[in-house]
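Input sequence (334 aa), recorded before submission:
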Amino acid sequence: MNWNYVKKLKSKLDFIAKFTLFSFTLLCYFLIVMVNMSLILTIILDQNLHKPMYIFLCFLCINAIYGTVGFYPKFLFDLLSDIQVISYVGCFLQVFIIYSNIKIDYSILVLIAYDRFVAICKPLEYNSVMSVRRTTVLISLCWFIPFCFEVLVVSLTLTLTLCGNRMQKLYCENWSIVKLSCGSTKANDIVGLIVISFYSVLPFGFILYTYLRIVLACWKNSSEVRGKVLQSCLPHVISFVVYSVTSFSDTALSRQNLQKVNPFVAVILSIEFIIIPPFVNPLVYGLKVHKYFCLLFTRKANKIKFYQMIQYSKFVIFMTAINFKFLLTLQGFV
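Predicted structure, token format:
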């Protein structure tokens, strides 16, 4: 048997597999950015959508783009590289972005549940409760508190002395880094448990409470009213269930010995929360705003001015530059 031919054939097949996976991943990244940007632009440009719920939805889409920046550029670079490495700073930066993204998503989903609760159970108080000032404060807290938690978690991990440098996942993950430590990790375990409890038990309990109140408030109303309420709340329920299941899979997997788990299953469970929610959220909520989207981009009702298109082009160029800069940072070139 010609072993040189076999090696060349295997190398060629590996290249084809890598190129196919690279193309599919790049397509996924492009679609995620495109569908989220479409929804963001629709909400920004249409005055009818300048309401608290749609503002929360807009920031949910912004957060989806922010989270994918932490995974896709580095993963795409790894697919084209023979050696998969990441700098020390880049690894912790990736941890910060990916896991602050999860916490921000949960926070925004809680806000959407609160908005629906006030709108349905206290409609006369809605404008005063969900004022512009309060909406601004709530959105700010949705980003500030997760950032503070993640800074605390990453700071504790930075104090550890590591005895290894091999990650068991496709991306840097805090618990995987902690398991590489040579010393005690009790502080990391306690803080990690507190953070997980805060962003799992409290959001689930609050959302369950709000929907119980909504169901009780609509129980005696007509079927038409119940249908409108269901139409208003169903996208949020779907988003919350999808995000809870996918993030729980990653959390549960992190506590397992990945050497005993099927590699294919481990990869799917570890990245599904990065891939599925950024797709599902804009598609599910897009059904609610599709008529506004169509109006914005038809000839008769197109009110987008030239300078707005220029601003949008500048934003796209800026986001591309940020992605490229982040990629270089992860590789240790910056």
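Checked by second reader. Residues 1-10, 295-307, 330-334 have pLDDT under 50 and may be disordered.
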